[in-house]
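Ticket #4471: structure export looks truncated?
Reporter: QA, pipeline team
Priority: medium

Steps to reproduce: submit the single chain below to the structure queue and open the exported record.
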Amino acid sequence: MSHPKVLIYNPGDDAGDVYSLLEKAGCTLIFGKASWHTRRDDNESDMCAMAKDADAVTGRSLRTGPITARIMDSAPDLRIIAKSTIGVDDVDVEAATVRGILVTNAPIESNWGGVAEGTMAMILTLLKRTRERDESVKQGKWRDPALNGLYLGGRQDGYPGLTVGLVGLGRIARRVVELLMPWKTRIIAYDPYLDRSQFAKAGVEQVDLSTLLKESDIISLHPILTKESRHMIGKKEFAMMKPSAILINTSRGEIIDEEALAEALQAGKLAAAGLDAFEQEPLPADSPLRKFGHRVLLSPHMVSATRGESRRAGPEYAIRAVLAALHGEVPESVYNREVIPGWQERFGGRRA
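Actual output as written to the record:
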């Protein structure tokens, strides 16, 4: 390779010196300065300038700095956009496919496993009223009956336990199923892209979306963000839910119509919600979701963020994808696989 240019648009604070692997391979690195607090239009202009003539782009998710068609057009020889996280909804995958650019993600266990654990933490926090009990004791109160929690699992005395409904049955949802199994609770799931055998293998009951919404005490959202899943939970769906239901979203904010969610909470059509992702991030100061007290558990889109060297795995995974593409090889975890034949004709076996 003759010093190919790699834009690292959002390296993350805990990636350490992992990107030095690219330097050792002879790459010229450009580190992005896009920020969660910078306007999207400003980020796009900056990233166009930084991506000029780049051979590869890599980084973590950044809602205010998506990889747009305009950014891709500033790099006519761009081979790959390698995400160091699972989600690719901040990449215009359709534009990349049209331009013959590979889009890869990093389905590492520390990431999707962390989301599953965070999902469980949200469920238990809301069911057991952990925050309220802590606050009560610190205020000098003791054993307030109003702070009784809900029992999650089934019991031998005949208590059936709560019904947990999973929308989407990918890696994260399947780990949630594994974590729920010892609780002996009923688990139902909806995923239109899987056949019946996949539900049986996961040990869950397959249902349609309306049945899931009507029968679940806890609804946990795990779909990827697509044109079909955008606002898939809106006014009509909230009307189907039990007024006692709890909604958990650790996927993408735009899965939910937030205006409809706020209306459902205000009208008592939903008991509580735990949210790690939002339609607009950071969450605006005037968002009505900030005003429901303990009925809404908010997290700053970092449910998968955990301490430890395992966080290096995502950038390392992405770097391997970048290096493979720069060597003219097709890497693992190509999201837009339909682009591979054309990509191989253009770049196969050719080093950048």
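Status: closed, not a bug. The export was complete when the record was re-opened. Leaving a note from the reviewer for reference: The radius of gyration is 22 Å.
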